[in-house]
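USER:
Before I trust my own judgement here, I would like a peer's view. Write it directly below this note and I will take it from there.

ASSISTANT:
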Amino acid sequence: MTSYAAAGVDIEAGDRAVELMKSRVARSRRPEVVDDASGFAGLFDASAFLRYRRPLLATSTDGVGTKVMLAQRLGKHDTIGIDLVGMVVDDLVVCGAEPLFMTDYIACGKVVPERIADIVGGVAEGCRLAGCALVGGETAEHPGAMGPDEYDLAGAGTGVVEADEMLGPDRVVPGDVVLGLASSGVHSNGYSLVRHVIRTAGLGLEQDLPELGRTLGEELLEPTRIYSLDCLALIRETEVHALSHITGGGLAANLSRSLPGTVDALLDRNSWTPPAIFDVLAGRGGVPQEEMDKTFNLGVGMCAIVPAAEADKALALLTGRGLPAWVLGEVVAGEGRARFRQ
C-alpha cells in the first residue's frame, strides 16, 4: 500500500519526539512567553518592551556546521543543541542585545524520538544558560535526502537593546583595553579542518590523548561556552564599548569587525595559553600558525573592549562569575585591524 510511512516518514515517531521534549523545553521558559494552544507559532508578550524608550529588535541565525557529524559518529546528541544556542545568542549580545527567545529547525533522515528529544533538550538547556526561551521549532524527516542516522540543525534568535545603549565600533577609542574571555575549547567552528586532521593523522575519536586528559571525541564535543549572561552583567555593571564573538575566521578577523577605521587592536599572544586541543590539531595535523589563527578561536571565545580605567573591575566581575578572562591587548591609532604584536 502506498502511504507516507511507506515513503519513509513516521508521523507517530514525530509525535512521540514532541512528547519527550516537552518537559525539557519547559525549563527554558521566560515569563513573557504566551502559550499558543494550536502549537503553530511561538508567542512572546511584546508589552515587555514598554519599559524601553526606543527598543531595537536584534535577530541572528546560525547552525553548528560539521560538528554534528562527530556527534553522530559518537552517538552523543544531548549537547549539540547547546552549541547551536551559543552560536546564535552570542552574536546577538555583541550589540548589547538581551536574547529573548529562539526557535530551532532539525532536518533528519529518520525521526528517532529519543535522539530528537536529546537534541532539542540540548537547545533548551542552552537557552536556559543564555536566559532566553525556546518558543518553538520544527523537525522535518527527509528520507532519501539524508541517511537514517544523519541530521542537521539550525536556529534563529531574537533579542532587544535600547537604541542609545547599543554597543559598536563607534564607541572604541585609542587607550581602550581588549579583554579576552576564555573559550571552552574549539566551540563550533573549524570542524571541517578538524575532521581533515583526524583523517590524515589517523586519530580516533575514542582515543585517549594524555595531553587532553580524556578522549579526543569528548574534547571535540565539549559544548560551546555561552557568554550572553556574563556579557549582559558586564554591560550593566561596567562601561563596555564593544564586544566581539570569536567564531569562524578566528580572533583577529572577528575582532576587527568591532573596530572603527581609525584604530587598531594590538594583541599579545603571550597573554594566554591556548587549550591543549589546539596544540594537538596543529602538531598532529601539521597546521601552520597562520592557518590556526584564521580558523580557530585558540581559546578566546569572546572579546570585550573597555576603557582602561574599567579593566580591573571588569576582570573581577568576570572572574567572580567563574569565567576566566585577562587583558589580551590594547587599542591604538590605526586602520581598523586587530593584529598580534610583532
Notes: Residues 134 and 299 are 28 Å apart (CA to CA).
